[in-house]
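TL;DR need structure tokens for one chain.
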Amino acid sequence: MVKISCEKQDQLYMELALDQARAAEQLGEVPIGAVLVVHGKVVAAAGNRRELWQDPTAHAELIVLREAAKRMESWRLDDATLYVTLEPCVMCMGGIILARIPRLVFGAFDAKAGAVGSLYNLAVDERFNHNVDVTQGVCGDECSEMLTIFFRTLRQKKKAEKRLRLAE
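>> reply
TL;DR here they are.
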């Protein structure tokens, strides 16, 4: 059996997370995707569902943690690696820490809400009883570009709608 290097594995699973982000975008969601892997198997995958479910906690990461815990029949996901297209927020990092996820891989940084280096670094905060090994920037350009295009398009759409309303 050919062993894939960690870098290649990370890219492979991040591509799956990007697929989840694209699917979320098709539903009108912010395109963020997550995939949880245990011993080389995808246990759970999801994209954001905040708009669809009208649930502020329906971030891709938390959906994946819930699904994985259900499938694994344990809230302790201490053999897992979580791949996510955007740096997790404080809420999601709380879930990752509480689930005992040992490794996190993310693509793009989140300068406005990131809790793994941008605003805070909860992954290595010694005050918690669990720390998370982090690999950052995997497929980062693609993850970042997807979000940039999404928000640019959203802003343009809102401006066009406002112009129509003012013209009426």
